[in-house]
Structure formats: C-alpha cells, structure tokens
C-alpha cells in the first residue's frame, strides 16, 4: 500500500473519530457549551447521570468508621442536616445491632423528615421483623455472595440465599414498605450466581437490587460492564455501594450511573469501614461538573460545608486540605499564569463554580510564583492604582523577598503599600524591616533579571 493511500485512510479515520466525539461527548447544542460544564456525559438512553438518587449512609456505614460514636442527639442532628441538604434516603444501622440502635432508629423515624428512612439488615427473617417494627420507610437486605463470603461469613449456598431472600422480600413487601436486596462482595462473586439471584428477587417485586464493591477492588470499567449487564436482566432500580480502598469510589459511582444504576450510596466525608465509601461532597463535585442544572435544582449545595464540619467534629477529624469543594486548597490559585487566567475568566482553571457551594476562590499572591496580574488585583483591593510597569516592578520585589524566606499576605501587602508610598513621595525608603543578612540577600535578588513580565 502506498504512503499516500495510508495517509488518506488516516485522515478518513480521524474525521470519523472527530465526528463521533463531537456528536456524542460534546453535544451539538449551544446549551452544552457551559464553561463550567465541559464534562458533559456521552449521550446514552440508559444513563442516569441526570436523574440519580442518593442513599446517604453516614448513620449506617459512617458508624463503622474507626472514630465514630454518635449518641442519639448527634444522630438526630446529622439526620436533620442531611434532610436539609436534600438527600433522598437516610440509611440507619441495623436495629438488631444493639438496643440503642433500635431506639435511635425509632427516634429518627418519628422526626417527620422529607427523606425516606431506611435500615440495613442481614438477609434473615428475625432482622426483618425487628426492622419493620421500628417504623422505617424501607429495609435494605444484604448477604455475601462471593465464595469467600459464603465460606467464611455465613456458610450458605446460592440456593439457600435465593430462597431466604425471596422469603424476606415478600415479608417486607407485605408490610407496605420498600425493600432492597443487595449482594455483598458483588465484584468477586460468580456472574451466573449474581444474575440468577438478581433475576429471582426482581421477579418477586423487589424495589431495588444492590451491587456492593465491599472491599473496593472494582475498577470503573468493571463497574460499567456489570451494571450494563444487570440493567438488561432486571426491571427494578439498581443501587450501588462503592468502597474507596483503591481510590475509585467516585469514578465507580459515576460509571455505574452511566451504565444504568439509579441510586448511589454515600457518606459525609466518605467515612465508613476502612477507607470508607463514596463521599457525598466528592460525588456532588463530579455530578455538578456534568449536570449542574439537575444537581443544583435538587440539592442545597451551600449546606455541604456545614454538614461536613458537623460530621468532622463528631468523629474528631480535620477536613483534608485537598477535600472536594470544602478543603482550604479547593479553589486556591497560586501560579502566576493560573492567577492571570482566573482573574480574567474563572472557568479557565475551575471546572466547578465555588459560588454554587457557597464557597469563594482565593488567588494566592504571597509567594515566589506570583504574577503581576495577581499583584495588580491585590493592589486594587487595597485601593492602590499604579501603571502596569509599576505593578511589574512591585511584583519583582515581592518575588525577591519570597526567594529568601516564606512570606505571608501581610508581607506582600506591606511591600505593595511601601512601594506605592515611595512612588508618591519620590523617595526610596526600605520596603520592609529586614535583618542585615536578609537585606543583603534581598538587594542581590532585586538585581537578578526575570519576574518583570511574568503573568
């Protein structure tokens, strides 16, 4: 085959690939060109990325977090905060776990919350009877189906699991409340076993089937493939539960929705057994970047900071610096080229608008990485107006000081003010009080080239 023919085929393939990408992933409607919405999902009639529901499990999975101890009043406070945020369901610890768990379950059921109240139980009739008696809106039934779980946890075979699941589901349905049946350790279970069980419970009218990545081993591709197959087997809703041991919980949740899942389990700050599960705030970050209209119309995003502060204090942890949305670095911009673009158009370096969550961005200007656009913006905040050349010279002095020691905002502000006073007076007074050694180093740095034209 000739080189010209090869190049012709490459060009044809490229054109077809570009057409596919632009007609599916990017969309053709101007409405899809929201600067805060470049992550628009591939169009797919099975996808539920714009119509999902949240089952919030801080008061069930979250109780399994190493530091967690929620007394009744704290559980009520968290439940009300979750309800104000707008979660669809609140899942509570199995009332069979302890007498206090049962009493707490009853207390929360009596609050009159908008969210439906669920409790999570073993696939056993004794658990089901106690759960129903608490007044919950639904019961989440669970049993391990992998060979490891069957051998080392409950010792039951697939036929026993199927028979017991149907018995429990029929009982819960007879009480007029919702019921979900979930397999534990789904991704290490035999696919034929899974589909056989799911098909059987779907036929008796279960509201949802659950897929649980109990040990956090699944990858997004595995999730997509399993949910896609399951979507073709059952007609009921599909709930998913992803642990974050390997760092894929949010990505797995998103892929599950793309494949046809309808419900995602979350917890505040992701707390739970070991490294926890899909974090509520992290899921909101992912989903608002994809379908902001749906997320902002349904959930009170501005409540996420107070909700996370409440839970963090209750379990005695600090919110990580890089936490989704609420970490103190989440909307902080430091490098000069970033700061310039952010000041011109925030969407250049932000896929999420902090204002949607009641947060604000911060341009970090007190460092050697700062640029003159950031210093100009800060000077204008201080009601100081100079020429572009003067802003650049002032920036060079700030960068010179930052090269010899860490500087704070007050240091940068002092230099801006002192530099401006020198311009006004025509004098050349020292910009800051420095030690003799610092003054000598600063003088040397001022003479070095560079920095005057940085962004």
Which descriptors apply to this entry?
455 residues; alpha/beta; TIM Barrel; 2 domains; eight-stranded parallel β-barrel; two-stranded parallel ribbon; 17 helices; 10 strands; 11% strand; elongated
Describe the structure.
The structure is a single chain. With 455 residues, the chain is an alpha/beta fold. It folds into 2 domains: 53-315, TIM Barrel, CATH 3.20.20; 332-447, no CATH class. It is 46% helix and 11% strand. It has helices at 3-24, 72-85, 99-109, 125-133, 147-154, 158-174, 191-203, 220-231, 249-259, 280-288, 292-298, 304-314, 336-344, 372-381, 388-404, 409-425, 436-447; strands spanning 53-56, 89-92, 116-122, 138-144, 178-184, 208-213, 237-242, 263-266, 332-333, 362-363. The strands form 2 sheets. Strands 1-2-3-4-5-6-7-8 form an 8-stranded parallel barrel, surrounded by 7 helices. Strands 9-10 form a two-stranded parallel ribbon. The protein is elongated and about 90 Å long. The two termini are 50 Å apart. 41% of the residues are buried. The model is unreliable at 17-32 and 38-42 (pLDDT under 50). One of its GO terms (biological process) is lysine biosynthetic process via aminoadipic acid. Its EC number is 2.3.3.14. It is an enzyme of class 2 (transferase).
Number of domains: 2
- State the helix count: 17
Computed structural class: alpha/beta
The separation of the N and C termini measures 50 Å
Characterize the main sheet: 8 strands, parallel, barrel
Query: How are the strands ordered across the major sheet?
Result: 1-2-3-4-5-6-7-8
Radius of gyration: 28 Å
Mean pLDDT: 88
What's the architecture of the largest domain, going by CATH? Answer: Alpha-Beta Barrel
CATH level-3 fold name of the largest domain: TIM Barrel
Roughly what percent helix? 40-55%
Task: Point out poorly predicted stretches.
Answer: 17-32, 38-42
Strand fraction: 5-15%
Classified by CATH, the class of the largest domain is Alpha Beta
H/E series, N to C? HEHEHEHEHHEHEHEHEHHHEHEHHHH
CATH superfamily of the largest domain: Aldolase class I
Q: What's the β-strand tally?
A: 10
* C-alpha geometry: elongated
Enzyme class: transferase
Family: Belongs to the alpha-IPM synthase/homocitrate synthase family. Homocitrate synthase LYS20/LYS21 subfamily.
InterPro entries: 2-IPM_HCS-like (IPR050073), AIPM/Hcit_synth_CS (IPR002034), Aldolase_TIM (IPR013785), DRE_TIM_HCS_fun_bact (IPR048253), Homocitrate_synth (IPR011872), LeuA/HCS_post-cat (IPR054691), PYR_CT (IPR000891)
Pathway: Amino-acid biosynthesis; L-lysine biosynthesis via AAA pathway; L-alpha-aminoadipate from 2-oxoglutarate: step 1/5
């Amino acid at each position: 085959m000739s080189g010209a023919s090869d190049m012709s085929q490459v060009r044809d393939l490229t054109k077809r690939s570009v057409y596919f990408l632009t007609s599916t992933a990017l969309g053709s409607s101007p409405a899809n060109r929201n600067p805060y919405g470049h992550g628009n999902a591939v169009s797919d009639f099975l996808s539920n990325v714009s119509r999902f529901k949240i089952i919030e499990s801080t008061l069930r999975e979250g109780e399994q977090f190493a530091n967690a101890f929620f007394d009744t009043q704290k559980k009520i406070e968290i439940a009300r905060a979750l309800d104000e945020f707008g979660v669809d369901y609140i899942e509570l610890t199995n009332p069979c776990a302890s007498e206090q768990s049962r009493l707490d379950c009853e207390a929360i059921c009596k609050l009159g919350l908008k969210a439906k109240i669920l409790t999570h139980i073993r696939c056993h009739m004794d658990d089901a009877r106690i759960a129903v008696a608490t007044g919950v809106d639904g019961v989440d039934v669970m049993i391990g189906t992998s060979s490891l779980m069957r051998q080392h946890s409950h010792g039951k075979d697939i036929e026993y699991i199927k028979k017991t699941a149907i018995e429990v589901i029929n009982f819960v349905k007879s009480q007029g409340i919702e019921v979900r049946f979930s397999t534990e350790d789904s991704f290490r279970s035999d696919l034929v076993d899974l589909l056989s069980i799911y098909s059987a419970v779907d036929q008796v009218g279960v509201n949802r089937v659950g897929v649980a990545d109990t040990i956090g081993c699944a990858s997004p591709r595995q999730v997509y493939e399993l949910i896609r197959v399951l979507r073709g087997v059952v007609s009921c809703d599909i709930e998913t539960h992803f642990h974050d041991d390997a760092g894929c919980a949010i990505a797995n949740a998103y892929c599950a929705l793309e494949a046809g899942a309808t419900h995602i389990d979350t917890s505040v700050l992701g707390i739970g057994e070991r490294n926890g599960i899909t974090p509520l705030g992290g899921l909101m970050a992912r989903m608002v970047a994809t379908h902001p209209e749906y997320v902002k119309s349904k959930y009170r995003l501005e409540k996420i900071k107070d909700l996370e502060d409440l839970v963090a204090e209750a379990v005695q942890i600090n919110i990580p610096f890089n936490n989704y949305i609420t970490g103190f670095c989440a909307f902080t911009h430091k490098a000069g080229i970033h700061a310039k673009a952010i000041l011109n158009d925030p969407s250049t370096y932000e896929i999420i608008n902090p204002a949607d969550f009641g947060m604000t961005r911060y341009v970090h200007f007190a460092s050697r990485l700062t640029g003159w656009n950031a210093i100009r913006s800060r000077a204008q905040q201080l009601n100081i107006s100079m020429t572009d050349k003067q802003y650049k010279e002032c920036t060079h002095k700030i960068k010179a000081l930052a090269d010899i020691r860490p500087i704070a905002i007050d240091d940068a502000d002092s230099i801006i003010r002192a530099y401006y006073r020198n311009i006004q007076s025509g004098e050349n007074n020292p910009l800051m009080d420095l030690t003799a050694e610092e003054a000598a180093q600063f003088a040397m740095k001022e003479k070095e080239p560079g920095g005057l034209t940085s962004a």
